[in-house]
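Possible race condition, two jobs.
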Amino acid sequence: MDISRQDIKHEVDNIIEDESPAISVPGYDPSIQPQPGEEGRALLKVDLYLLPFIVLCFCFLQFDRTNLSNALTDTFAKDIHIGNPNINLAQTLFTVGFVITELPFNMISRYVGAERFLPVTMFLWGVATWSQVFVRNASGLYAVRFFIGALEGGYIPSFALYLSKFYTNRELALRYAIFWASNSFAGILGGPLSIGLLSLRGRGGLHGWQWLFLIGLFDMFPWSRHVLLPSNSASTHKRFFGKSYNIFTERESSLLITRVIKDDPTKGIRYGKPVLPSHILQTFTDWRLYGHLVAAFLSMIMISPMNTYAPSIIKSLGFTSLQANGLNSVGSACALMFSVSLAFSSDKVGERGIHIAIGYLWGAAGLLWLALAAKGIDKWILYGGVVWTQMGMGSAQAINAAWLTTKMEDHQRPVALAAYVMSIQLANFPGNQLFRAKDAPRYHHGLIIAASCAIFAAFVILVWKLFYRLFDGKDQGVRAKSGVIEFGHSRTEGSDMA
């Protein structure tokens, strides 16, 4: 046990001896006794008030990340004189920017509060997205995509950490799935939206793709994020156009905070404290981190090329540009239902590893469907392979993040979640190079490589499940039981993440 862990254990011992002074969190009341249904009603407020708004914010991020794929079905590549190698490099630079800022932005967000920091970055990346309207060559595209990626760094783990303030560990997989389902929401809306925007070609002297990039203007109004998002359940007094309002009552705030801290006392110990360099070192020397990172990396190699080229693949089957963008939304709708159902099942039965493997293998099956289908096969059958792939890619992302969150103590979570999202983004480096122009339009070789990686990711996560069974108290996380806090060997009472 290293020094940091000993310090945390000492603080936990203080909780056992005198619970109230040890945890100094506004609204925390260990003596509060909820009435039947009272916690559920308070939790429903979080589900209906905060979660949808966070999902909406994430949708705008996803629009900005994927609108390039819709632009490629228009005359974008021709107008600025670029080809597949330029597009792949631009996407790689986007990932470089994202990875560089991921950890520092997440640490800043933890210190000043996601509700304060993220609106600033959203405004700036909205400016960068909007500036794509003026791109005229490959160099301009490289610069803009790099800055969009850099300004989006830290957004995903910061909001994932923010959500953990309101939900117990056993409730996170479903909520994370809804959060990450923003990818699917954006895909569902992005297809019809792109059809409408691309059809404006010639209006105002703009190309269709220029109208598409103008959507970045919506990200330039970040004030509403700060107005609507509280720093925690107790800090819900807000002012809007001079009028004040409270999201939760005082009792609801106390119920929400107390249930989360009782579920995982480390959230109370580290409340209001910054991430220290020793915490970064401790997190990256924790063996539990790496199975989740490797599995995420391998499983997500498929997502960048599919996000970028799926509309083009659909178009190559014999559909028009507008039809391809519309049909691309179907896969996103199916992905939304599949990912949320998978996460709901995972929370319901208290199991993580097998559910994650199912998600990975589902995507692999779709990739092989596309790669190995015989020539001359009906275009609708091939389109079915695209939809199947889109259903699986990223479907287990939220469950894996929730499992990792549960296994890490609170002072490790900002670093662990940033590392997790970084591993997903790093998968874009090989992913962006998979689909080569000489392999178009079906990209057989790239699809087979991506499928192989997803299959191996399923193997890795199942091995990690076995390791947890043997060495780390099943799949469980941090909890308080019978007056003793057990680190890395226990779980939330009433759940069995096995």
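Job #2 (started ~2 s after job #1):
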Amino acid sequence: MDAAGNRSCKLLLFFFAAIIPALQGHIGEYDEYWKQRELEAKENTEQAYNPNPEEVTQHVNHLVSRSLMRLNSTRRHLRARKKGGPCDPTSPIDQCWRCDRNWEKNRQRLADCAIGFARGTIGGKYGRIYVVTDPSDDDLLNPKPGTLRHAVIQKEPLWIIFARAMIIRLKEELIMSGDKTIDARGANVHVAYGAGITIQYVRNVIIHGLHIHHIVPGNGGMIRDSVNHYGFRTKSDGDGISLFGATNVWLDHLSMYKCRDGLIDAIQGSTAITISNCHFTHHDQVMLFGANDNHKMDEKMQITLAFNHFGKGLVQRMPRCRWGFIHVVNNDYTHWLMYAIGGSSHPTVISQGNRYIARRHVASKEVTKRDYAPPEVWKTWNWRSEGDLMVNGAFFSQSGDPKASSKFKGDTKVSAKPAYKVDLLTKDSGTLICIRGRAC
């Protein structure tokens, strides 16, 4: 073989060495355990998929409308008082639990509050409370009791809380088992300066109230992923949170920034996901929903983005989606450098009641970006904007059926609230300061 042939072979080997870990989610040894997990995950995807996504969008819109009517009533009552007054959270999720002064004793009430495609996700509601007391992550094969890694690999449902403020620097990716809630209310908890969180081939996970930032790729190696299994992992990407074949996942009130790869990625048939009340800043590629145009399993991906603030220092992918159905409702986009919402492989994007504030630069005005398809192809994709507020010359290039959005707005009396309400709905995005004995 000549020198050119050798170079070609080396390039092919490098290509496959790079792509195989991604296709297998950084599982170095795809043994019977992981094969079984993958089969179960595919069944979970089929069960979680909603063939009528408009029912979900209508339900979200109804809850938003009801929450704002309640808020208006509360504010009238407040004006009648000289001082004090009732708790007044703005989003329907927060109204479900935040006014309870005994939230610390009633933590698992949060599990009744998910909306959107993750509605019904309860995490570890029916499990015991597990208190993380130790921020260390020294042993990847035999995690120390009291550490976050020890908590998330347990078989049974758990509601995981934290004894105090802490910074958890993960040596390698934290691989979660299903039926878990990570609840950082009442403690200032950062997962930072190490690897990120992986939710792979499992279902029923809630993550609430974490700061996740400065995540870097892990080196891989032998890592325990459950109490009865460990195996070799290849190098992780540096995502803040990675969903791989995961279903029924709710991410709420997170503050995320400066991760090496994405802040949140959802790929390989992940579905029934809601990302809500989060604050995202200082990052390039924010969210990736669907990793490959050839991964047709992502047709059943369904994700709700609601009441999030996409803030300072963001560049693109808020989200970048393939296949699937994405409901983007009442989010505040106050900064993007390239574009806000992008995609390929004909995803459906329904944008309702969002505020898009463009930068002054003329090249940063368009909200949307389609890849790998000419206009005559992408013009058939259903990307619809309804009740969105465009500021500083921002514009959303719509495509598909002009009547498509009417299918998703629900009862004419209740719809996604106009975008001028967005600053109110997102004012408490990101992590909350919750104090024992007070409404959160």
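The chain has one domain: 26-65+93-425.
Logs attached separately.
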